[in-house]
Specification:
This protein has two helices and seven strands, in the order E-E-E-E-H-E-E-E-H. It has about 130 residues and is of the alpha+beta class. The chain has a single domain, classed as Nucleoside Triphosphate Pyrophosphohydrolase (Alpha-Beta Complex), CATH 3.90.79.10. A hairpin with a 2-residue loop joins strand 1 and strand 2. The longest helix is centred in the middle third of the chain and has 13 residues.
C-alpha cells in the first residue's frame, strides 16, 4: 500500500507572472517558497482539496483546471504525491491568511527564490517553457 500523502497545489497566473507563497515559520521547510496548496483530506477529491486550501491559505475561490504536472518526492518527514493544477481566481484577491508572504514572479525570477525540493522539476519545466 502506498503511504504517500496526496498534496495539491495551484499554478495561478496573473498576466506573465505566477503566484508563489512562502512557507510560514514553525512548519517543515519554513521560509522556502512553493505553490499555494496543501494536503488532501481523506475522502476529498484533489480538486475539492485545492479549492479548500486556496480559501484557507489565500482567501480566494479558485476554478481548478487541468493538472499541469505531478511529482512524487520523499521528504525526510513525509513522502508526497504532488499534483499541480492550473487554476484561476474566480472570487477574491489573494491575501495571506496564515502570515505567509505571497509573491507574483516571472519564470526568469525563479533563481531568486529558494523553492521546496518537491517543486524542482515543476520549476525546471516552467523555466524551459518560458524560453520557447
Amino acid at each position: 500500500m502506498d503511504k504517500r500523502r496526496e498534496v495539491v497545489a495551484a499554478l495561478i497566473y496573473k498576466e506573465d507572472r505566477f503566484m508563489i507563497c512562502r512557507r510560514p515559520e514553525g512548519k517543515a521547510r519554513a521560509g522556502m517558497w512553493e505553490f499555494v496548496g496543501g494536503k488532501a483530506e481523506q475522502g476529498e477529491t484533489l480538486e475539492a482539496a485545492l479549492v479548500r486550501e486556496c480559501k484557507e491559505e489565500i482567501g480566494v475561490t479558485v476554478e481548478v483546471g487541468e493538472p499541469y504536472m505531478t511529482v512524487e518526492y520523499d521528504y525526510p518527514d513525509i513522502p508526497v504525491h504532488l499534483t499541480l493544477f492550473r487554476a484561476t481566481v474566480k472570487e477574491g484577491e489573494p491575501t495571506s491568511m496564515e502570515g505567509n508572504a505571497i509573491q507574483w514572479i516571472t519564470p526568469e525570477e525563479i533563481p531568486f527564490y529558494l523553492f521546496c525540493p518537491a517543486d524542482k522539476s515543476i520549476i525546471e519545466r516552467l523555466q524551459k517553457e518560458a524560453k520557447k
